[in-house]
Automatic annotation (TrEMBL), chain B:
Organism: Aquibium carbonis
Gene Ontology MF: a single term: heme binding
Protein name: Sulfur oxidation c-type cytochrome SoxX
Signal peptide: 1-23
Coiled-coil ranges from the UniProt annotation: none
PROSITE patterns on file: CYTC
Length: 286, 154
């Protein structure tokens, strides 16, 4: 408020304050997201036991241009990865002469709920399985192909394609499967554990400081409903485990391995924290 | 880069105070907190406010503007608002209190504060290997930042 009254004097001050005002009142925007006419749920009542009353999509925390880019599939650079994923879906690979489509046919039908319901419980591995690991499992067991290396461009593209089939569907993981509830607990521990020389937990930024700014970065709730995401920062797709690792690196800690127990537990927990938000893959972020 | 900077800072300190540079430096674990204050200089070498302003703003050192806004450094881009603004901070806190907050804010406020300890080894899990046993700022950088903050009066 002080900033506003001080600035009233000169045009220069007004200009500067335009920024300051937006920064000072760093709340999520009051706006609605439709992608190609499909309405997205960007605000949802939080599930029981959640620290917030309302869960909020990261889209609400981004600037106008970033938000607009996601609203139009022709503008969204992440859709190139989805298109590439669609090609991979149809491409035969491995010793058994099969593509994804050989068994799963039309992804729009067979994959329509996948993005909203993973991670699931993998009874064979006795641990949670996410879309990336499910793709690998399918490749190894049903196609006779190699699993992808973490963050192989094809892994990211195919994951984006599969999750995109659930565009608009609210996240709803089923924690009653197998031991998922135990992994949820483990993930919660990870979420609140401070790491690194800077001594931050996920919660330090995405819960305690949600809505504030660290430098130019508007801190969101750290929701995962848009992954893999197109990031302007790096001008490319970013997978969820890449983002987890990047956040942990920024606390000046050693990074856990992608798909490690620690990060799988975190994926289970953080996906639950976004319960009710639409799948936005591929979201567009800063 | 950090090592080079730290090395350069030490070289300068040695050049200015050939005898005092390391002799009286207090190790992170030995810093004594008393009623929200650290009354003893960490180095015995008076802080340099100009060097302090640099360490304050440098993203690889204090990176204080990531969370705190400060009008005096408005030429620097992107001040955060996670933490209170520091305009007039010297009217609110004494240099001894500022030193304590910078060294380890968790001993001054609560364990819940987001503010990292800048001269503390009471840190998070799995610290990056090359940073194990190292503090974010050197003792002299803390003194310099304290000296800089002490100039911020309204």
């Amino acid at each position: 408020m002080e900033r506003i009254s001080l600035a009233a004097g000169t045009a220069l001050c007004l200009l500067l304050t335009g920024l300051a005002v937006e920064r000072a009142f760093g709340e999520p925007v009051d706006d609605t997201l439709e992608i190609d006419g499909v309405p997205m749920i960007t605000r949802a009542a939080a599930p029981e036991g959640h620290p917030f009353d309302e869960v909020l999509s990261g889209w609400l925390f981004r600037e106008a241009e970033t938000r607009a880019t996601q609203e139009d599939s022709f503008e969204n650079p992440g859709m190139l990865a989805v298109e590439r994923g669609g090609e991979i879906w149809e491409t035969v690979d491995g010793s058994m002469g099969k593509s994804c489509a050989s068994c799963h046919d039309d992804a729009a039908v067979s994959m329509k709920d996948v993005g909203a319901t993973y991670p699931k419980w993998d009874a064979d591995a006795q641990r949670p399985i996410n879309v990336e690991l499910q793709i690998d499992k399918c490749r190894v067991e049903n196609m006779g192909a190699e699993p992808y290396k973490f963050d192989d461009a094809e892994q990211v593209a195919l994951t984006a394609f599969v999750k995109h089939q659930s565009l608009g569907k609210p996240l709803a993981i089923d924690l009653t499967q197998g031991e998922l509830q135990t992994w949820w607990e483990k993930g919660k521990d990870v979420y609140y554990t401070r790491t690194g020389q800077l001594n931050f937990a996920c919660a330090s930024c995405h819960e305690a400081s949600m809505g504030k700014y660290i430098r130019a970065d508007h801190l969101s709730q750290g929701q995962v409903n848009g992954f893999p995401t197109y990031r302007f920062n790096t001008a490319g797709m970013v997978s969820l485990h890449n983002r987890f690792r990047g956040c942990i690196r920024d606390t000046r800690a050693e990074m856990p391995k992608a798909f490690s127990d620690e990060l799988m537990a975190l994926e289970v927990y953080v996906t639950w924290r976004g319960t009710g938000l639409s799948v936005e893959t591929p979201a567009v972020r800063q | 880069m950090r090592r080079i900077l730290a090395g350069a800072a030490c070289a300068i300190a040695l050049a200015v105070h050939p005898l005092a540079a390391f002799a009286d430096e207090i190790a992170p674990a030995d810093v004594a907190f008393d009623d929200m204050k650290v009354t003893t200089s960490l180095t015995g070498v008076p802080g340099n406010p100009e060097e302090g302003a640099k360490a304050f703003a440098n993203r690889g050192l204090g990176n204080c503007l990531a969370c705190h806004a400060l009008e005096a450094l408005s030429k620097e881009q992107f001040h955060g608002d996670v933490a209170p603004t520091l305009d007039g901070v010297a009217d609110r806190w004494s240099p001894e209190e500022l030193r304590a907050i910078i060294v380890d804010a968790k001993q001054v406020f609560t364990e819940e504060t987001m503010m990292p300890g800048f001269y503390s080894l009471n840190v998070g899990l799995n610290v990056r290997k090359d940073l194990v046993g190292k503090t974010v700022l050197t003792a002299q950088q803390v003194e310099d930042v304290v000296a800089f903050l002490a100039t911020l009066k309204e």
